[in-house]
C-alpha cells in the first residue's frame, strides 16, 4: 500500500535530515574551534612580533650585545614555528620573510650592532694616544728640571695647554658626531690648529738631552747596528704631529662607518616593522575565515531546516491526497447509505490506488449481501 510507504519514506527523510543536522553542527563546531585556535595563536604571535622581537632588535642595535642578538634569533625562530601552525594562505610568504630576517640578523646585521656600540673607538684610541704623548711631554719637562729649569717649565706649560686642547677636542668630537653641526666642525678644526701650533712651539724649544735608543733601519728585523741615540722630545713631537695629522681622516672614516651602520639599523628596523605589518594583515583574513565558517554553518542549517519544512509540507499534501480526501468520500458514501437505510454500491471512478481497491472489495461485499438476501427472500416465498 502507498500509505505505509509514505510513512516509511517520511521517517527515513526525517532521520536523514536529523543526521545531516548533527553532522553540520559537529563540522561547524570543529571548524569554528580550529579557526578560534588560529586566532588565539595569531594574537600570541602579534604580541611577540609587535613588542618582544622589535624591542629586542632595538636593544641589540643600541648595545651590540651578542646575547641579545641570540635572543632575537631565538624569538624569530619561535615566531617562524608558530606561523607554520596557522592555516592561512598568507603565512607562507611571512614565514619566508622571517627565515630570511633571522639569517641576515646572524650575519649581515651582526656587524651593525658591534659598530653601533663602538663606532667611535678609532677616534677614542687616537685621543688616548694623544693624551699619552702629552703626558710623556709633561714627564719630559719634569725629568729635565735639574738640567734646564726654564726650558723644562716651558715644556710643562705647553703640555698643560695641549692637555686642555685635547680634552676640548674630545668633547667637540662627541658633540659633532651626535649632531653633525658645521659650527662644531669648525671648532674641531680650530682645536687641531691650536694643537699644531703648540707642537710647533714645542719643537722650537731646545732639547733637554734626555736620550732614547731608536732603530733607524727600515728593515722590520733591524739589528743593533742600526740603533742610534735620539732625544725623547723628537719621538714625542713626531707622534703628536702624526696623531694630529691623522685625526681628520679618522673623523671622516668614523662618519662613514656611522652612516653605514645607520643604514643597516634603519633597514633592519624597516624589515622588522614590515614583518609586524604582514603579521597584522593576517588578522583580517583569519577573522574573515572564522566569519565565513560561521556563515557557512548558518546557511547549511537554514537549508536543512527549509528541506525539513518542505518535507513536512509534502508529507501533509500526500497524506491529504492519498488518505484524508478518499477517506472522507468513502465516509460520506457510507453515511448517505445509513441515512437512506439501504445498502448500495459506491462508485469506483472517484477513487484511486489503495482506496479504489477498498471500494471494490466493499462493492463485492454489497453484491454478495444482495445475492444472499434475494435467495432468502425467494426461499421464504416458496415456503
TrEMBL record:
<feature type="transmembrane region" description="Helical">
    <location>
        <begin position="299"/>
        <end position="317"/>
    </location>
</feature>
<keyword id="KW-1133">Transmembrane helix</keyword>
<protein>
    <recommendedName>
        <fullName>Methyl-accepting chemotaxis protein</fullName>
    </recommendedName>
</protein>
<keyword id="KW-0812">Transmembrane</keyword>
<keyword id="KW-0472">Membrane</keyword>
Amino acid at each position: 500500500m502507498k500509505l505505509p510507504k509514505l510513512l516509511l519514506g517520511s521517517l527515513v527523510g526525517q532521520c536523514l535530515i536529523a543526521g545531516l543536522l548533527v553532522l553540520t553542527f559537529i563540522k561547524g563546531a570543529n571548524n569554528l574551534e580550529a579557526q578560534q585556535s588560529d586566532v588565539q595563536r595569531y594574537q600570541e604571535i602579534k604580541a611577540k612580533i609587535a613588542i618582544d622581537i622589535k624591542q629586542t632588535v632595538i636593544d641589540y642595535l643600541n648595545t651590540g650585545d651578542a646575547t641579545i642578538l641570540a635572543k632575537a634569533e631565538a624569538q624569530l625562530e619561535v615566531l617562524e614555528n608558530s606561523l607554520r601552525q596557522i592555516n592561512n594562505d598568507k603565512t607562507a610568504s611571512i614565514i619566508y620573510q622571517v627565515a630570511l630576517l633571522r639569517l641576515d640578523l646572524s650575519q649581515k646585521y651582526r656587524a651593525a650592532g658591534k659598530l653601533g656600540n663602538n663606532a667611535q673607538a678609532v677616534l677614542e684610541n687616537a685621543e688616548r694616544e694623544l693624551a699619552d704623548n702629552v703626558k710623556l711631554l709633561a714627564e719630559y719637562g719634569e725629568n729635565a728640571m735639574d738640567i734646564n729649569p726654564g726650558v723644562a717649565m716651558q715644556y710643562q706649560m705647553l703640555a698643560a695647554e695641549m692637555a686642555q686642547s685635547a680634552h676640548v677636542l674630545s668633547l667637540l668630537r662627541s658633540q659633532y658626531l651626535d649632531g653633525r653641526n658645521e659650527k662644531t666642525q669648525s671648532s674641531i678644526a680650530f682645536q687641531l690648529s691650536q694643537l699644531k701650533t703648540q707642537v710647533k712651539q714645542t719643537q722650537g724649544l731646545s732639547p733637554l738631552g734626555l736620550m732614547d735608543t731608536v732603530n733607524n733601519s727600515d728593515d722590520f728585523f733591524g739589528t743593533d747596528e742600526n740603533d742610534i741615540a735620539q732625544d725623547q722630545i723628537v719621538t714625542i713631537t713626531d707622534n703628536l704631529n702624526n696623531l694630529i695629522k691623522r685625526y681628520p681622516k679618522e673623523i671622516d672614516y668614523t662618519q662613514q662607518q656611522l652612516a653605514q651602520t645607520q643604514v643597516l639599523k634603519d633597514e633592519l628596523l624597516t624589515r622588522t616593522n614590515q614583518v609586524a605589518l604582514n603579521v597584522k594583515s593576517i588578522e583580517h583574513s583569519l577573522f574573515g575565515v572564522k566569519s565565513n565558517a560561521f556563515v557557512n554553518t548558518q546557511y547549511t542549517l537554514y537549508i536543512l531546516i527549509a528541506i525539513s519544512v518542505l518535507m513536512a509540507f509534502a508529507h501533509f499534501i500526500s497524506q491529504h491526497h492519498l488518505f484524508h480526501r478518499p477517506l472522507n468520500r468513502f465516509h460520506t458514501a457510507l453515511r448517505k447509505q445509513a441515512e437512506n437505510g439501504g445498502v448500495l454500491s459506491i462508485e469506483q471512478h472517484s477513487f484511486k490506488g489503495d482506496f479504489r481497491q477498498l471500494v471494490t472489495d466493499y462493492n463485492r461485499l454489497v453484491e454478495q449481501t444482495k445475492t444472499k438476501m434475494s435467495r432468502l427472500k425467494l426461499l421464504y416465498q416458496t415456503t
